[in-house]
Amino acid sequence: MKQQIFILNGPNLNMLGKREPGIYGATTLSDIEALCRAEGENLGVEIVFRQSNHEGDLVSWIQEAGERQALVLINPAAYTHTSIALHDAIRAASVTLVEVHLSNIHARESFRHHSYVSSLAKGVICGFGVDGYVMGLRALIKLASQ
Ligand code: CA2
Protein backbone atom coordinates (compact mmCIF):
# COMPACT_ATOMS: atom_id res chain seq x y z
CA MET A 1 0.00 0.00 0.00
CA LYS A 2 1.24 3.50 -0.82
CA GLN A 3 2.24 5.88 1.98
CA GLN A 4 -0.52 8.44 2.44
CA ILE A 5 0.24 12.13 2.85
CA PHE A 6 -2.52 14.38 4.15
CA ILE A 7 -2.14 17.95 2.89
CA LEU A 8 -4.38 20.06 5.09
CA ASN A 9 -5.24 23.70 4.49
CA GLY A 10 -6.87 26.07 6.94
CA PRO A 11 -9.28 28.99 6.75
CA ASN A 12 -9.50 31.33 3.77
CA LEU A 13 -6.97 29.41 1.70
CA ASN A 14 -9.88 28.64 -0.66
CA MET A 15 -9.62 32.36 -1.56
CA LEU A 16 -6.09 32.02 -2.93
CA GLY A 17 -5.67 33.59 -6.34
CA LYS A 18 -9.02 35.34 -5.99
CA ARG A 19 -8.16 38.08 -3.42
CA GLU A 20 -4.96 39.75 -2.12
CA PRO A 21 -2.63 38.52 -4.90
CA GLY A 22 -0.03 41.04 -3.65
CA ILE A 23 0.48 38.96 -0.50
CA TYR A 24 -0.39 35.42 -1.52
CA GLY A 25 0.15 35.39 -5.30
CA ALA A 26 -2.11 34.50 -8.19
CA THR A 27 -2.01 30.72 -7.76
CA THR A 28 -5.27 29.11 -6.67
CA LEU A 29 -5.64 26.28 -4.15
CA SER A 30 -6.68 24.01 -7.06
CA ASP A 31 -3.37 24.86 -8.75
CA ILE A 32 -1.52 23.89 -5.54
CA GLU A 33 -3.50 20.66 -5.34
CA ALA A 34 -2.56 19.80 -8.95
CA LEU A 35 1.11 20.54 -8.21
CA CYS A 36 1.06 18.35 -5.10
CA ARG A 37 -0.71 15.51 -6.89
CA ALA A 38 1.89 15.60 -9.69
CA GLU A 39 4.72 15.58 -7.13
CA GLY A 40 2.98 12.80 -5.18
CA GLU A 41 2.85 10.72 -8.36
CA ASN A 42 6.60 11.27 -8.88
CA LEU A 43 7.35 10.31 -5.30
CA GLY A 44 5.04 7.27 -5.31
CA VAL A 45 2.77 8.45 -2.50
CA GLU A 46 -0.99 8.91 -2.21
CA ILE A 47 -2.08 12.50 -1.65
CA VAL A 48 -5.17 13.36 0.40
CA PHE A 49 -5.71 17.10 -0.17
CA ARG A 50 -8.27 19.02 1.93
CA GLN A 51 -9.22 22.56 2.97
CA SER A 52 -11.62 23.81 5.61
CA ASN A 53 -12.66 27.09 7.16
CA HIS A 54 -13.60 25.20 10.36
CA GLU A 55 -11.17 24.42 13.16
CA GLY A 56 -12.95 21.17 14.12
CA ASP A 57 -12.55 19.75 10.62
CA LEU A 58 -8.78 20.21 10.86
CA VAL A 59 -8.77 18.56 14.30
CA SER A 60 -10.75 15.56 12.96
CA TRP A 61 -8.50 15.23 9.93
CA ILE A 62 -5.38 15.22 12.14
CA GLN A 63 -6.98 12.41 14.17
CA GLU A 64 -7.80 10.54 10.94
CA ALA A 65 -4.20 10.95 9.73
CA GLY A 66 -2.98 9.53 13.04
CA GLU A 67 -5.28 6.49 12.75
CA ARG A 68 -4.14 5.85 9.17
CA GLN A 69 -0.46 6.43 10.03
CA ALA A 70 -0.38 9.09 7.32
CA LEU A 71 2.19 11.87 7.19
CA VAL A 72 0.87 15.43 7.36
CA LEU A 73 1.78 18.61 5.52
CA ILE A 74 -0.31 21.42 6.98
CA ASN A 75 -0.87 25.09 6.30
CA PRO A 76 -3.06 25.89 9.29
CA ALA A 77 -3.48 29.50 8.04
CA ALA A 78 -4.78 31.79 10.82
CA TYR A 79 -5.31 28.81 13.17
CA THR A 80 -1.51 28.60 13.29
CA HIS A 81 -1.55 31.57 15.64
CA THR A 82 -4.65 30.77 17.69
CA SER A 83 -5.48 27.09 17.90
CA ILE A 84 -4.66 25.17 21.07
CA ALA A 85 -7.19 22.57 19.81
CA LEU A 86 -5.02 21.93 16.76
CA HIS A 87 -1.89 21.79 18.93
CA ASP A 88 -3.53 19.21 21.23
CA ALA A 89 -4.78 17.13 18.28
CA ILE A 90 -1.31 17.01 16.68
CA ARG A 91 0.30 16.05 19.98
CA ALA A 92 -2.28 13.34 20.72
CA ALA A 93 -2.13 11.84 17.21
CA SER A 94 1.69 11.95 17.28
CA VAL A 95 1.75 12.34 13.50
CA THR A 96 4.90 13.18 11.57
CA LEU A 97 4.10 16.68 10.40
CA VAL A 98 5.63 19.53 8.42
CA GLU A 99 4.17 23.05 8.72
CA VAL A 100 4.09 25.22 5.62
CA HIS A 101 3.21 28.86 4.98
CA LEU A 102 3.17 30.68 1.67
CA SER A 103 4.37 33.94 3.19
CA ASN A 104 7.25 34.55 5.60
CA ILE A 105 5.19 34.87 8.77
CA HIS A 106 8.22 36.30 10.64
CA ALA A 107 8.43 39.25 8.25
CA ARG A 108 4.78 40.15 8.85
CA GLU A 109 2.69 41.44 11.79
CA SER A 110 3.92 40.35 15.23
CA PHE A 111 0.71 38.35 15.86
CA ARG A 112 1.82 35.99 13.08
CA HIS A 113 5.22 35.31 14.66
CA HIS A 114 3.98 32.68 17.11
CA SER A 115 2.76 29.27 15.94
CA TYR A 116 0.95 26.72 18.12
CA VAL A 117 1.99 24.06 15.57
CA SER A 118 5.74 24.63 15.10
CA SER A 119 6.88 23.05 18.37
CA LEU A 120 5.28 19.76 17.26
CA ALA A 121 6.45 19.89 13.63
CA LYS A 122 9.49 18.12 12.23
CA GLY A 123 10.15 21.33 10.34
CA VAL A 124 8.63 24.59 9.18
CA ILE A 125 8.79 26.06 5.68
CA CYS A 126 7.68 29.63 5.11
CA GLY A 127 8.17 32.40 2.61
CA PHE A 128 8.65 30.34 -0.56
CA GLY A 129 5.08 30.59 -1.82
CA VAL A 130 3.65 27.56 -3.57
CA ASP A 131 7.10 25.94 -3.85
CA GLY A 132 6.97 25.43 -0.08
CA TYR A 133 4.31 22.73 -0.54
CA VAL A 134 6.59 20.73 -2.86
CA MET A 135 9.55 21.23 -0.49
CA GLY A 136 7.38 20.01 2.39
CA LEU A 137 6.28 16.91 0.49
CA ARG A 138 9.87 16.00 -0.35
CA ALA A 139 10.94 16.56 3.25
CA LEU A 140 8.18 14.26 4.54
CA ILE A 141 9.13 11.46 2.13
CA LYS A 142 12.74 11.73 3.18
CA LEU A 143 11.78 11.61 6.87
CA ALA A 144 9.59 8.55 6.24
CA SER A 145 12.47 6.69 4.60
CA GLN A 146 14.90 7.29 7.49
O1 CA2 B 1 1.36 32.50 4.62
C1 CA2 B 1 0.54 31.62 4.87
O2 CA2 B 1 0.44 30.57 4.22
C2 CA2 B 1 -0.48 31.83 5.99
O3 CA2 B 1 -0.69 30.58 6.63
C3 CA2 B 1 -1.74 32.33 5.34
C4 CA2 B 1 -2.84 32.72 6.33
C5 CA2 B 1 -2.29 33.65 7.41
O4 CA2 B 1 -3.28 33.88 8.38
C6 CA2 B 1 -1.04 33.10 8.06
O5 CA2 B 1 -0.57 34.04 9.00
C7 CA2 B 1 0.03 32.81 7.04
C8 CA2 B 1 -3.99 33.41 5.62
C9 CA2 B 1 -4.60 32.62 4.53
C10 CA2 B 1 -5.65 33.47 3.89
O6 CA2 B 1 -5.46 33.44 2.51
C11 CA2 B 1 -6.10 34.37 1.78
C12 CA2 B 1 -5.94 34.30 0.42
C13 CA2 B 1 -6.53 35.20 -0.40
C14 CA2 B 1 -7.33 36.21 0.12
C15 CA2 B 1 -7.51 36.28 1.48
C16 CA2 B 1 -6.91 35.35 2.32
Overall pLDDT: 97
Main sheet record: 5 strands, parallel
Return the structural class. alpha/beta
Strand order of the largest sheet: 2-1-3-4-5
Spatial shape: globular
- Uncertain runs are none
Q: Give me the CATH architecture, please.
A: 3-Layer(aba) Sandwich
Question: Which percent range describes the beta-strand content?
Answer: 15-25%
Q: What is the count of structural domains?
A: 1
Radius of gyration: 14 Å
Helix content: 25-40%
- Name given to the CATH homologous superfamily: Dehydroquinase, class II
CATH class, please?
Alpha Beta
Based on the model shown, name its key terms.
Rossmann fold, five-stranded parallel β-sheet, 146 residues, binds ligand CA2, 18% strand
How does this model look, in words?
Strand 3, helix 4 and strand 4 form a beta-alpha-beta unit. The mean pLDDT is 97. Helices cover 38% and strands 18% of the residues. It has a single domain, classed as Dehydroquinase, class II (Rossmann fold), CATH 3.40.50. It has a 5-stranded parallel beta sheet with strand order 2-1-3-4-5, sandwiched between helices. The chain is built from 5 helices and 5 strands, in the order βααβαβαββα. It is an alpha/beta fold and 146 residues long. Ligand CA2 binds next to loops.
